[in-house]
TrEMBL record:
Xref: Gene3D superfamilies: Spore Coat Polysaccharide Biosynthesis Protein SpsA, Chain A
Keywords in alphabetical order: Disulfide bond, Glycoprotein, Glycosyltransferase, Golgi apparatus, Manganese, Membrane, Metal-binding, Signal-anchor, Transferase, Transmembrane, Transmembrane helix
Function as written in the Swiss-Prot or TrEMBL entry: Responsible for the synthesis of complex-type N-linked oligosaccharides in many glycoproteins as well as the carbohydrate moieties of glycolipids.
InterPro entries reported in the protein's UniProt record: Galactosyl_T, Galactosyl_T_C, Galactosyl_T_N, Nucleotide-diphossugar_trans
Statement: the UniProt record of this protein carries the keyword Metal-binding: yes
Protein name: Beta-1,4-galactosyltransferase
GO biological process: carbohydrate metabolic process
Protein species of origin: Cyclopterus lumpus (Lumpsucker)
Pathway: Protein modification; protein glycosylation
Length: 383
């Protein structure tokens, strides 16, 4: 009897345990499917959002897109439990596919451009018009600007021309120089510094004005100063700056294609911005013809620099023949001024420049900067 009652008791206990296990199994299944359904719903939203519904944070400054995903890969993780942990959203490592690839940087321009011709035939017999020059140079932009499309030049060059009443000469100069400078792969702009009025001409002061005004137009670091009647006869005479101030026009036809004297620095020259400021620019007090280029040469040597020049066979120039301009007579004081460069160069130059800007006008082939620069002081009475 006792054994029978014990057997029934054990049977009831086993049935109870089995019932508890079944109940536990049912509860686990309910919880599992509840979690699974939430994860499935959340992932389906993310999958549908790859084209616009996923969380998108755009940078206000850069405009880039960053996509973030909830980390629900942990066991029994739900969206509510994830948010309750206070974890930060982690950016996805997915690559951005809507960013436009940046263009490859241009290579440096070659020191010896491959398209140069060498010796050129320069003549002034045919009639020249601005319309013809413009047709010949379609890649030159307004203001006489040009940048090589296929390489990166070392220098940004402002070509500065002191000017008054030389419109015919300017046509020939633009006709020859634009193609030369483009073949040389120069990043350049052409600036005509036009002295208004009929007072005595002052070449060096106009060049100082050109330096000042061109820097308002672009960040030039090289300055070529050229007379409008001088045309290079060889495109290997490269119009950029060098380690030392450069004298380009060393062999003009009017001098028998020879350098007239060792200290000559006239016609066409070039200085970097650093070199120009080191000599305080050019003198402002040389009114009339002559002397200012010798003063500039003195400034260069007195400041510990040397003049560099091309080979005489390359630095050849033709000059457009013309009569001497009115109000540009030889300066009788030039020889005395040249002897005093050491005493005057710190107080007479770019630091003391005064002028009045009247107009800046951009033409298809050049920029015209018209200025008033005053008049010379009264000359001391003789005797």
């Amino acid at each position: 009897m006792t054994r029978l009652m014990l057997g029934r008791t054990l049977e009831r206990i086993c049935k109870g345990v089995l019932l508890l296990c079944l109940l536990h199994f049912l509860i686990m299944m309910i919880l599992y499917f509840d979690v699974y359904s939430q994860r499935f719903d959340l992932f389906s939203r993310f999958n549908n959002g790859r084209n616009g519904s996923r969380t998108n944070v755009s940078g206000a400054a850069g405009g880039g897109h960053h996509y973030y995903y909830y980390n629900l890969s942990r066991p029994n993780a739900t969206l509510a439990s994830y948010l309750a942990t206070g974890e930060q959203l982690v950016p996805s490592a997915q690559p951005e596919t809507d960013r436009t690839p940046s263009p490859k940087p241009l290579p440096p321009c070659p020191e010896s451009p491959p398209g140069l011709v060498g010796r050129l035939l320069i003549e002034f017999g045919s009639q020249m018009t601005m319309e013809r020059v413009q047709r010949e140079n379609p890649n030159v932009t307004d203001g006489g600007r040009y940048t090589p499309p296929d390489c990166r030049p070392r220098w940004k060059v402002a070509v500065i021309i002191p000017f008054r009443h030389r419109e015919n000469h300017l046509k020939y100069w633009l006709h020859y120089l634009h193609p030369i400078l483009r073949r040389q792969r120069i990043d350049y702009g052409i600036y005509i510094i036009n002295q208004l009025g009929e007072e005595t001409f002052n070449r060096a002061k106009l060049l100082n004005v050109g330096y000042t005004e061109t820097l308002k137009d672009a960040e030039y670091d090289c300055f070529i100063f050229s007379d409008v009647d001088l045309i290079p006869m060889d495109d290997r005479n490269l119009y950029h700056c060098y380690d030392q101030p450069r004298h380009f026009a060393i062999a003009m036809d009017k001098f028998g294609f020879r350098l007239p004297y060792a200290g000559y620095f006239g016609g066409v020259s070039g200085l970097s911005k650093k070199q120009f400021l080191k000599i305080n620019g050019f003198p402002n007090e040389y009114w009339g013809w002559g002397g200012e280029d010798d003063d500039i040469y003195n400034r260069i040597t007195l400041n510990g620099m040397k003049v560099s020049r091309p080979d005489v066979r390359i630095g050849r120039y033709r000059m457009i023949k013309h009569e001497r301009d009115k109000h540009n007579e030889p300066n009788p004081q030039r020889f005395n001024k040249i002897q005093n460069t050491k005493n005057t160069m710190r107080k007479d130059g770019i630091s003391s420049l005064t002028y009045r800007l009247v107009q800046v006008k951009r033409y298809p082939l050049y920029t015209d900067i018209s200025v008033e620069i005053g008049k010379p002081p009264p000359r001391p009475a003789k005797g």
